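Render this sequence as a predicted structure.
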Amino acid sequence: MAPYTAPIREMRFVLERLAGLSELAALPGYEEATPDLVEAVLEEAGKLAAEMLAPLNQSGDREGARLEGGAVRTPAGFKEAYDYYRDNGWNALPFDPAYGGQGLPWALAFAIQEMWHAANMSFGVCPLLNQSAVELLQAHGNEEQKRLYLPKMIAGEWTGTMNLTEPQAGSDLSLVRSRAEPDGDGFRLFGQKVYITYGDHDLAENIVHMVLARLPDAPAGTRGISLFAVPKFLVNPDGSLGPRNDVRCLSLEHKLGMHGSPTALMGFGEDGEGAWGTLVGEPHRGLVHMFTMMNNARLTVGLQGVALAERARQQASAYAKDRVQGKPLVPGRDEGAGGDRSVPIVRHPGIRRLLMTMRAETEAARALAYYTVSRSDVARRHPDAGERARARARVDLLTPVVKAWCTETGCSVSSLGVQVHGGMGYIEETGAAQHYRDARVTPIYEGSNEIQALDLAFRKVGRDKGEAARTLIAEMRTLDDDLAALPGDDLAAIRRRLAAGATALEQATGWMVEAANGDPLAAGGAAAPYLQLFALVTGGFLMAKAAIAAMEDLRDPAADHPFAEAKLLTARFFAENAMARADGLLIPITDGHRTVMALPEDQL
């Protein structure tokens, strides 16, 4: 497996020029995010990712997590890496200083987390769930829960999990049967949960499970679900650990990828006593509260797609420059190669197209992910309520797009990485296949991408009659003048494709608003291509902004001109090879839905 190098120059560009990091640093509470601090944090995180986490990726995949004598063991080296990660304060980066956090922007934390997932996704998914659990408790926990749990979880001394799915209840949580029986000032929980990431492990001394269950008087359906905090070890009033709670890992799943990450079948109340926990938020509103955790996780799962795409891209690029095979199409044209000599495969147009596709789609996905989370910083910190509301609307609109499109990008780019390697990509020793296997779960968990498409179509577009979407499209239109004002064929080509994409998205949005509010089957059948269209055009919009920034840098003698030239060409490639598909998606949206449900079930 090729080494991993954090793309710090690219991350800084996206943070500064697309996510507006300097504007975020001006928000109340984010004043510490100075350019010098940001640079130092990125550099140090890059070292940790490259030197400690990445070397454990392939060995962790081969060894896997294991259940021994009722205890889960992570692969060799994971515990030492986690101790270093925790002791050096990496877990606390974006959280409230009142509970031990560092209070830095989530946009910066996202860049750091991309490094963890690119270097070693099986490791990075543990902090992912913990940060989402912290978000949930900060938003909905009572003061006692915050006092007991948040300092330890923010420090990384304890971790958190999300317990939704049951053997009979996958995405349909109305079927949840786990029950919670009142017991003094708490509850005793009984039931089983499946697919629980890091449901048990040896990295932290305690695990705080966020569990959906039903109270005895709960109404049927999702409206009868409550949320509970259930620790692995009970916590004494002074914060010290008490006896083991009645919660156990019953087995570990055998998975396609992410072998180093323990995915557990969890049992609550298996010993008959019941797992003691406390109610989080209001009774019967557990699913509403859990969406705080789920939405945080969905954005970060989208980031996992970006991370794995970057890792696969780096490996494919290195292999293509090293692998010698085939003659040049134009004999004697390649420097240092005669007409009868084989050349590195990077010089073949077919391979170059694969590599450019990997680069362009990865950069567009990163831009979308960082931009979206930067709007969440504005929604948290901006002093003006109207600005907070507008930013929150943008985050809500783009969350399903980030989750679905970025994870699909991770799968497609890592698949292209296998293709670049040829037969060696299909052999495990190169590591290319692992990136593909690890990526494959991301479109499935934290709400499958089909659910994300329905969320976009019905909740985010249909419910507000397309207002939030049209606001974004209007911003895309305003970029036309900026593109027209700058010289060059590259920006002209980008301008043409962005204008066409915005028109296609506007037409599709109008159609979707009518369908979502009048023909649910049509809207549901068209939801997936609509999300794809939304993502391509929004990604293209951000790449167009990146191209403008690159052109500005090319006019600055002190700027990094090779980086700017590469950014400009990559943005044009994305416009002409990815965003150009926008027009073609209109027919699958407006007409293609007609045959989705037409074939009889027995013919499928």
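Summary. The chain has a mean pLDDT of 96. DSSP finds 17 helices and twelve strands in the chain.
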